[in-house]
Each structure stands twice: as C-alpha cells, then as structure tokens.
Amino acid sequence: MKNSNLGRFLTAFLILVALCLSGCQQSNQPELQKQASDAEPSVHMLITRAYGSEVLIDTNIAYTEDFAVLDYLESAAEVETAYGGGFVNAIEGYRSGYTDQKDKIKRDWFYTVNGIFSHMGALDYYPEPGDQIHWDYHDWDKSMSASASVSGYPIVLKQGFDTMNVPTVIVCQDTLRESAQIILESLDPLALDIEIRTLTDDFQPFDTSVHTLVLADLETIGARDDLKSVLDDSAQMGHGFELDQTALTYCDSISSTEVRAEKYAVMFAEQKTYAEPATLFILTGSDAGSVARLVEYITAKPDTVKGAVSLLIESESGHVVRLP
Fold first, then answer.
1. DSSP letter at 157?
2. Burial class (CB in 10 A: 0-12, 13-18, 19+), 132
C-alpha cells in the first residue's frame, strides 16, 4: 500500500509541474486584507520561504464562506497567477524559478492545509474555520514526494483535512510513556478524542481510522518492518535526512554542508492515505532520552514546528534544525 501511495503522490505532483510550461497573468488584488478579530471565525495564513526558515506573512484572516485557498492568499499578499488563475506563479515578488524561465530552477510555491500537501489546486480547496494554510517557496528537487509536514502539528489533529477528521492515538514504547503523557496534557486545550497506547506487535501504523503519533527509539523502530520502511524512505519522501546504522546525516540549510549527528531525535510526518486526513507523526532518535528531549522541546516551544517539513534536535548541543 505504501509504494502505491507514493506513486499517487508523485503522479499528482508531476501533473501540477506540467502546468508550469507557459504564460502568466496578474491576478486582481483586494484593496484591504481581511484580518480577523479574536472573536470571529478565521483561517490562519502562513507564508514562508525555505521550508519555514523566513516568515513573510503570519496572520489570521476572517473566514468567508465559499472562499478558496487562493482567495485567502490574495487577501493576505500580492499574488501573481498563471494558466487562468489556477497556478500561483509569484507571492510577494518571489517568482517561480521554473515557469517561463530560460534557465529553469526547480523552485516554486507549494501549500499545505493543516500540514497536508493538498491534492487540489488553490482554486479548488475551500478551507474550514480554524484551518491553517501554509505557503512555502522552496526547491522541489528534494521534497517533491512529501505528503505531510510537521508544521501541521497539532492543528491537523483538531481540524483534519478537506472537512474530514479522525480520532488520535499516541503509541509509545514503555520507556517513553511519560513523554506520551506530556504530549497528551499539552493537547488538552484542543479537546481531542485521544488516548495513549503501548507499542505492541499488532500495532498498525497505517490505520486510516486514526491520526497516530509514534514515540520510539531507533532500535525499537528498526525491529519492525513497517516502521523501518518509513525511515528507509525518509530521504525519498522529502524529509531531509538519511539514516545509517550509526548516525543521521542532514544538510545544514545555512552552510549547505552535510552534518552527521550521532545523538539526535527527529520528528516527521506522512499522510497515511492520499486525499484523506489520517496523519502519521513519528518521533524517534538514537535513544529514548533523545526522543524525550524532543518531546519536551516541542511542547514547551510549539512554534518550533511552524513552517517546518521535519524537525531534528541534536541531543548533546540542543541544536534544533528545520529539515527540508
């Protein structure tokens, strides 16, 4: 099932890229941004560059029935569209590196709703009150297969995707039970349908009837073929890191150099099934203590995940890295 899901993600993405071959037009911009007050229903708009490393716009926009993603975007930013208005060619002056470019660069705008990369165009997805729309301008040669991002944590657990939602389970190894409880308590304000379960042999990570947060060290995950396959595919799925038997390797976004970490924890996400809300979040690392430290960090500083596809913490230094 997992390989077929990946094929559908790749097919859907390549169809979108195929639209990037001709002409563009300037869209009409509204005169005023519809900022929402705290008392009225709203949609959160986050616009960033380089996998969330630079925030351009971060605001709430008053919910309007029958507004599509593109309508909210045009309410918040200067936008240039192409192909009849369905393809976003530029936001705030940052233009596609591929459309109508002689020297083409694989760099474009991509959006998620509650952390899930949408299978629909920006004219066709209609957000619900409370949804989070995230547009990010980044290279797509390495991340074209990503189906979900940690930027959707925890909002996807409450909001779901495309008007659909499911309950949540936190699945953990015994030594990370306390960390699971920390997450559970941090999510209390969302009033979720949620429970903690122990990681057992009959656990089904791709059960589409629930969102799943998995807390386990690398040794535990490596002993299970289903979870190990997720890690083995991490680079192909655009999570920005590769694992071997002794360390994790990632590319530092500032220096563009490869870094090896021997004591670490990572958090990444995948959509379990194409076009459905159930999301799999995996928090794993070199040892249980590193995973516990990551849990403490993201619950104490929840904005850490804002705009990120994946997240890494180096246990000894405490250095936190947003991964493409």
1. H
2. buried
Percent of all residues in the chain with a pLDDT value above 70, rounded to a whole number: 81
Q: Which of 43, 185, 171, 33 lies closest to 114 in space, CA to CA?
A: 43
Q: How much is the pLDDT for 30? A: 42
Paired tokens of 206? 């791709």
Q: What mean pLDDT comes out for the span 275-301? A: 95
Estimate to the nearest angstrom the gap between the alpha carbon of 193 and the chain centroid: 22
Round to whole Å and give the CA distance between 164 and 160.
6
CB 176 within 8 A of CB 288: yes
Strand order in the sheet with 258-261: 241-243, 248-251, 258-261
Half-sphere exposure of 242 (CA within 13 A, CB side): 8
Omega within 30 of 0 (cis) for the link into 205: no
Nearest to 241 by CA among 313, 295, 139: 313
Q: Which residues in the chain belong to E strands, given as ranges?
A: 25-26, 42-49, 54-62, 79-82, 87-91, 94-95, 107-113, 116-117, 132-139, 168-172, 194-198, 211-215, 241-243, 248-251, 258-261, 264-271, 279-285, 310-314, 320-323
Q: Note the pLDDT of residue 144.
A: 56
**DSSP for 161-180, written as a single string:** BTTB---EEEEE-GGGHHHH
pLDDT digits (tens, 9 = 90+) for 34-73: 556 566 999 999 999 988 889 999 999 999 999 999 999 9
How is residue 175 written in tokens? 């030594």
Residues contacting 205, CB < 8 A, separation 6+: 212, 214, 226, 227, 230, 280
Among 71, 190, 211, residue whose Cα is nearest residue 133: 71
